[in-house]
């Protein structure tokens, strides 16, 4: 392959909050500055910027990327916004990787931001517009529908129970207690989760991640720069992305084949043959509790329908054989859509450098995968990192 | 650095309405044309880039609706809320990194389906500092033109001449929507829209779709037709806020151009490039961009050259022989790709009555419109 | 300065902060209106819905009968070949019981969205719609349903010309439905 080696050399993020005082530009700026400070770099040393954010309707802006350019370091520089729904937060790193791996630039600042609280009366309402204008919107669907339909299909196909899924909420919200930016860290039991309000059966309230405001950022550098900037570069070893057909009602939702394809693309680049053995930490996208399990199977880290069992066996605990979502994930830290995916990339960056504080996974993890999902049960985006 | 080339072009003609096709059907038509032109099967394409903005489509997370009609289902595909030229930049990076050999770039406009287009443009303005003024956002172009005239010494009549030239150029372009035998006088006599902009100086919206197939050098050598090589690609943003920007100069354009020129090894654009397709969403922008692109030393010189016919077909520096956005139409995110389409015809020697003799190197430039300072430049060559 | 954030930046605001005016807000109501061209496939789909029929498209190469209809086959990447009428009956592939509306109102009676595999289309070829004339605890995956149409005079050429899909009498109940009934009863 003709690409150059690229490393993450710094990461930063804001708190994830239900409602932030800060404007979208200020959130982006805080995360970008934190990442630059962590890398001990100045904006002048950054050659280009990549920005990721999900629906413009939340922040109340058209051409949101243009508006946020200055908060993301995109002033008088090459600046690009990429957008693949919820998959954006991980894909933006792949987009940044392209800038440097292609040899066109040596450094790239990647910022993802979301300010959902601007949307009134509730950000949920804006999701109506993601559905097909002809065949779906007239039925007034909401986002809960599509997740609930998928969760039901997954449960039905493999005989998975709500109890088994509730364990994801318990694990992730507990993990989030160790995250300084977390919105919803909590000590919960499976009973607490099962007793929570039925939103859209089989989805219960404590299985759903919140809407949030927040931003996260990373600094990418080519090898010769990375080695100057830090003695612990975290190398991007593989990137992958894949989109499935728009017609989600024509597909069996029990398995995310688009995540599998994205993962295989990234694993092939990283030279990974047995992901379950070679990956030390996984940060799959967990907007709903069952999704973490669904995605682990797509990532080839659990056989189809078996992720719940491995979870129950403690395999995915922070001190388990394959720690999953040690950050606390979207369920625990928060879900400012695009920024949430980048938060997962920040997490694997800190974990591989031994800098994850109270969330640090024991042993010396060498390789990790971060994954995000987006669109109508359609988009898989994967990044593999290693030291 | 590894080279990339355009090996296929497909499009639908720019038209004010396109009621016979949904956006998906329009994309399918353009994609079929592009793959036939490239002599490839859709299954061979490895990666796809769509350039689209949610609010122009009226659908959130628009990339949901893009894969099937391009042949991208279960493939790597992503969307950039940018102009089509940014999509080309992305494809070039995918090819140069060695990750992909064959990448498709698409953009389209269904502007006719947007009943409240100006409200949507207004939605791009700063919600706290600017939007509460409750003005039609084209006023920003009016402010910029006024400052530009004041600083550069270009006259209103010289800007009007650009509009007339481009509308007349479109008469030779079957893909253009707004061809007209206009004179400068007619443009100047049209009512003021956003002073000092006259109505006939604003590009009007169109529907249409353009699909390009880009290939690595190795893949392009095996291609059916003549590849059109990407010599350079650059893009940049200036200051977003109205309050912090330079109102007279298109700094985003100069920054983008300099990146592209460096890659292409071009130091004297007017001498080394034979055909220019630049953004003229408002007539004065063509002159402002020509200065930023270093094609002329100053906008005033560009204006004088235009008055002397130097930028006409047959002149030493042909600009917008396709008709530009004024003649073809404002195709929203696809605007830059219609500029590139013209270059592809020119460099293949297929531009018929619009053919610039001896066209070997061409430059396309786009701007994302008010209130942005975002633009991109692509330089193409026949060999 | 390496490592995870020592200082977490960001200033959370509560609902009370907003109500008490502790932050300036600039309200804005967007005016977006669109009139999307239906094009050939959806145009015909809507016209047939007005006639009380569901129509699909057939690709002769892969043999799939596709609904919602489309003029291109996304698997073969070629134009689809034929119009095919399909039935207005089908089987529930998956469903949910939703107690929150799209604009975040609580609902006492749940909406029941479902993916319904349509008879006559290819296996797994579903459309999204609502279920009705059924108690939430009685819905199960695999249930057979039939469209309940608006009277002809009230149809406009929209997916809402079908009010909902209702169970075909004589369908079997399953264990899962019974289990869920228990769960739902506990919550009341």
Could you please describe the fold and organization of this structure?
The complex is a heterotrimer of chains A (387), B (383) and C (188). Helix content of chain A is 35%, strand content 18%. Chain A is an alpha/beta fold. Chain A has one domain: Peroxisomal Thiolase, Chain A, domain 1 (3-Layer(aba) Sandwich). In chain A, helix 4 packs across helix 14 (337-352) and helix 6 crosses helix 11 (289-298). The mean pLDDT of chain A is 96. In chain B, 35% of the residues lie in helices and 18% in strands. Chain B has helices at 23-38, 54-57, 84-96, 117-122, 139-152, 156-169, 184-189, 217-221, 251-264, 269-272, 283-292, 299-307, 324-328, 335-347, and strands at residues 4-11, 47-51, 77-80, 102-110, 192-194, 197-198, 207-216, 228-237, 275-277, 361-367, 374-381. In chain B, the strands form two sheets. In chain B, strands 3-2-4-7-1-8-11-10-9 form a nine-stranded mixed β-sheet. A two-stranded antiparallel sheet of chain B has the order 5-6. Chain C has helices at residues 15-19, 39-50, 175-187, and strands at residues 54-58, 65-66, 72-73, 78-79, 82-86, 89-95, 97-100, 106-111, 113-118, 126-130, 144-149, 162-167. Chain C has one domain. The mean pLDDT of chain C is 90. Chain C has 188 residues and is α+β, with helices and mostly antiparallel strands. Classes of the chains: A alpha/beta (387), B alpha/beta (383), C alpha+beta (188). Chains in contact: A-B, A-C, B-C. Chains A and C meet through strand 1, helix 1, helix 5 and strand 5 of A and helix 1, helix 2, strand 6, strand 7 and strand 9 of C.
Summary?
The complex is a heterotrimer of chains A (387), B (383) and C (188). With 387 residues, chain A is α/β, with parallel strands linked by helices. Helix content of chain A is 35%, strand content 18%.
What is the fold's blueprint, element by element?
The complex is a heterotrimer of chains A (387), B (383) and C (188).
Chain A: E1 6-13, H1 24-39, E2 48-52, H2 56-59, H3 64-68, E3 79-82, H4 88-101, E4 107-115, H5 143-158, H6 162-176, H7 190-195, E5 198-201, E6 203-204, E7 213-222, H8 223-229, E8 234-243, H9 257-270, H10 275-278, E9 281-283, H11 289-298, H12 307-312, H13 329-332, H14 337-352, E10 367-374, E11 379-386
Parallel strand pairs in A: 2-3, 2-4, 9-10
Antiparallel strand pairs in A: 1-7, 1-8, 4-7, 5-6, 8-11, 10-11
Helix pairs in contact in A: 4-14, 6-11
Chain B: E1 4-11, H1 23-38, E2 47-51, H2 54-57, E3 77-80, H3 84-96, E4 102-110, H4 117-122, H5 139-152, H6 156-169, H7 184-189, E5 192-194, E6 197-198, E7 207-216, H8 217-221, E8 228-237, H9 251-264, H10 269-272, E9 275-277, H11 283-292, H12 299-307, H13 324-328, H14 335-347, E10 361-367, E11 374-381
Parallel strand pairs in B: 2-3, 2-4, 9-10
Antiparallel strand pairs in B: 1-7, 1-8, 4-7, 5-6, 8-11, 10-11
Helix pairs in contact in B: 6-11, 6-12, 11-12
Chain C: H1 15-19, H2 39-50, E1 54-58, E2 65-66, E3 72-73, E4 78-79, E5 82-86, E6 89-95, E7 97-100, E8 106-111, E9 113-118, E10 126-130, E11 144-149, E12 162-167, H3 175-187
Antiparallel strand pairs in C: 1-2, 1-5, 3-4, 6-9, 6-11, 7-8, 9-10, 11-12
């Amino acid at each position: 392959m003709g690409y150059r080696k690229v490393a993450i050399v710094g990461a930063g993020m804001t708190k994830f909050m239900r409602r932030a005082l800060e404007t979208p530009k200020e959130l982006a700026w805080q995360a970008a500055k934190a990442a630059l400070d962590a890398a001990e770099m100045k904006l002048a040393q950054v050659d280009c910027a990549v920005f990721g954010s999900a629906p413009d309707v939340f922040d109340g802006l058209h051409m949101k990327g243009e508006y946020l350019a200055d908060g993301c370091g995109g002033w008088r520089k090459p600046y690009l916004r990429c957008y693949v729904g919820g998959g954006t937060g991980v894909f933006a790193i792949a987009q940044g990787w392209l800038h440097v791996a292609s040899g066109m630039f040596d450094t790239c600042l990647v910022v993802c931001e979301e300010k959902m609280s601007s949307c009134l009366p509730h950000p949920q309402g804006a999701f109506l517009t993601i559905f097909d204008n002809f065949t779906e919107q007239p039925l007034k669907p909401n986002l809960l529908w599509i997740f609930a339909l998928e969760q039901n299909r997954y449960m039905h196909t493999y005989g998975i129970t709500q109890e088994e899924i509730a364990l994801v909420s318990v694990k992730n919200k507990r993990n989030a207690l160790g995250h300084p930016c977390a919105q919803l860290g909590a000590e919960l039991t499976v009973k607490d989760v099962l007793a929570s309000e039925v939103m859209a059966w089989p989805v219960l309230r404590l299985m759903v991640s919140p809407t949030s405001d927040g931003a996260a950022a990373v600094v990418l550098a080519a090898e010769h720069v990375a080695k100057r900037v830090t003695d612990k570069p975290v190398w991007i070893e593989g990137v992958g992305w894949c989109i499935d057909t728009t017609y989600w009602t024509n597909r069996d939702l029990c398995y995310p084949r688009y995540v599998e394809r994205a993962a295989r693309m990234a694993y092939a680049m990283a030279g990974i043959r047995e992901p379950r053995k070679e990956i030390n930490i996984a940060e799959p996208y967990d907007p709903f509790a069952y999704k973490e399990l669904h995605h682990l199977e797509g990532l080839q880290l659990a056989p189809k329908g078996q992720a719940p069992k491995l979870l129950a066996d403690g395999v995915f605990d922070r001190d388990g054989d394959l720690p999953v979502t040690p950050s606390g994930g979207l369920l625990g830290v928060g879900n400012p859509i695009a920024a949430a995916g980048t938060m997962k990339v920040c997490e694997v960056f800190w974990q591989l450098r031994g800098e994850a504080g109270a969330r640090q996974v024991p042993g010396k993890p060498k390789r990790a995968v971060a994954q995000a999902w987006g669109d109508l049960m359609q988009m898989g985006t994967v990044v593999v990192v290693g030291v | 650095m590894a080279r990339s080339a355009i090996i296929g072009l497909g499009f639908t003609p720019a038209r004010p309405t396109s009621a016979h096709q949904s956006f998906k059907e329009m994309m399918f038509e353009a994609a079929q044309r592009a793959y036939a032109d490239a002599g490839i099967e859709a299954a061979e394409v490895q990666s796809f880039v769509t350039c689209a903005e949610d609010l122009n489509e009226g659908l959130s997370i628009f990339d949901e609706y893009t894969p099937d009609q391009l042949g991208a289902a279960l493939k790597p595909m992503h969307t950039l809320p940018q102009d089509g030229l940014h999509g080309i930049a992305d494809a070039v990076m995918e090819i140069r990194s060695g990750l992909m050999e064959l990448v498709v770039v698409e953009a389209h406009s269904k502007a006719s389906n947007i009943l409240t287009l100006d409200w949507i443009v207004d939605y791009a303005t700063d919600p706290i500092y600017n939007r509460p003024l409750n003005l039609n956002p084209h006023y920003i172009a009016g402010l910029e033109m006024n400052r530009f005239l004041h600083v550069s010494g270009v006259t209103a009549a010289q800007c009007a001449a650009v509009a007339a030239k481009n509308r007349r150029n479109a008469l030779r372009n079957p893909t253009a929507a707004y061809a007209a035998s206009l004179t400068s006088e007619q443009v100047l006599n049209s009512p003021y829209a956003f002073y000092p902009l006259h109505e006939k100086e604003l590009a009007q919206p169109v529907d249409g779709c353009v699909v390009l197939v880009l290939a690595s050098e190795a893949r392009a050598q095996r291609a059916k037709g003549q590849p059109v090589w990407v010599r350079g690609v650059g893009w940049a943003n200036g200051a977003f806020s109205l309050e912090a920007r330079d109102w007279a100069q298109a700094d985003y354009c100069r920054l983008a151009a300099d990146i592209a020129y460096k890659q292409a090894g071009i130091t004297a654009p007017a001498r080394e490039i034979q055909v220019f397709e630049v953004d003229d969403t408002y007539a004065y922008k063509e002159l402002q961009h020509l200065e930023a692109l270093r094609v002329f030393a100053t906008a005033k010189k560009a204006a004088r050259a235009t008055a002397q016919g130097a930028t006409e077909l047959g002149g030493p520096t042909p600009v917008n022989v396709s008709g530009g956005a004024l003649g073809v139409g404002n195709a929203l995110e696809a605007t830059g790709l219609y500029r590139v389409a013209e270059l592809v015809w020119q460099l293949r020697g297929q531009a018929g009555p619009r053919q610039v003799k001896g066209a070997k190197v061409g430059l396309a430039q786009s701007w994302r419109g008010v209130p942005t300072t975002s633009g991109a430049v692509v330089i193409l060559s026949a060999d | 300065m390496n490592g995870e954030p020592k200082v977490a930046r960001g200033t959370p605001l509560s609902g009370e902060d907003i109500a008490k005016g502790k932050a300036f807000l600039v309200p804005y109501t967007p005016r977006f209106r669109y009139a999307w061209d239906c094009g050939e496939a959806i145009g015909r789909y809507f016209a047939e819905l007005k006639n009380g029929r569901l129509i699909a498209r057939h690709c002769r190469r892969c043999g799939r009968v596709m609904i919602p209809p489309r003029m291109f086959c996304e698997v073969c990447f070629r134009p689809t070949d034929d119009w095919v009428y399909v039935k207005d009956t089908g089987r529930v592939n998956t469903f949910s019981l939703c107690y929150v509306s799209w604009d975040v109102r609580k609902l006492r009676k749940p909406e029941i969205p479902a993916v319904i595999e349509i008879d006559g289309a290819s296996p797994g070829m579903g459309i999204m719609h609502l279920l009705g004339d059924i108690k939430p605890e009685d819905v199960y995956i695999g249930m057979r349903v039939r469209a309940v149409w608006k009277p002809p005079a009230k149809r406009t050429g929209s997916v809402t010309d079908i009010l909902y899909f209702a169970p075909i009498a004589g369908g079997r109940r399953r264990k899962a439905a019974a289990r869920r009934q228990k769960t739902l009863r506990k919550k009341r």
